[in-house]
User: Fold this.
Amino acid sequence: MARYDKGHKATTHQRVVRLAARRFRESGLSAVGVASLMGEAGLTHGGFYGHFPSKQALIREALVSALSDTRQHLEKVAHAQGGLAALLHAYLSADHRDNPADGCAIAALAAEVSREPGETRAAFAEQTQALIALIESQLPPATQQQAGRPAKAVLATMLGTLLLARTTTDRAEADAMLEIGMQAALQLGQTGVLS
Assistant:
C-alpha cells in the first residue's frame, strides 16, 4: 500500500473541490457526474467517499469555494485599483463574460441552486451576502446608510447584465450591454437612488 505525505488527503480534497467548482460553473450541477469528475482528478469513483459523504456535500463545498474566490478577487481589485468602479470593471468584463467556468458561481448556477436542498441554498445565500457586504463597503457613506438596498440592487444589476451579455450572440452588442450595465450599476452605487 502506498504511503502519502502528511497533508496529501487535504490537498487532494481541495483539488477535487476546485475542479468541481470549475466543472459545475462550466456545465451545471446535474451535468457533472461523480465518476467523470473523479476520473478527471485522477482518482477512482470509489475514492470519492473517502472525501465526501455525498455529491450534495461536494456541491456545497464547491459553491462556497467558488463564491469565496470571486469575492476575494473582487475585494483585491477594489482595494488595489479604486473601489466600486474597479470592482464593476472586473466583474462586467468581456473576459468574465466569455469564461463562466472561471467566473462567478451566482451568475453560472443560481437557477440550479434554487432547486437544491435548503442546506445548499443556505450556504450559497451566506456567500452571496458576503459579496453584497463587499459591494456595500465600496459605496459612499451616505449610500451605505440605506440598509443594504443599494448594494443588493448593484449586485442584481451586475448579475443581470452579465447574464444578458452571455446570451447575446452579437459580440458588439454584448460588449455594449456590459458597458451599459456597468454605468447603471456605478450610478446606482454612487447615488443609491432606487426609483
Remarks:
- The chain has a mean pLDDT of 92.
- Residues 63-191 form a domain with the Tetracycline Repressor; domain 2 fold (CATH 1.10.357.10).
- The two ends are 66 Å apart (CA to CA).
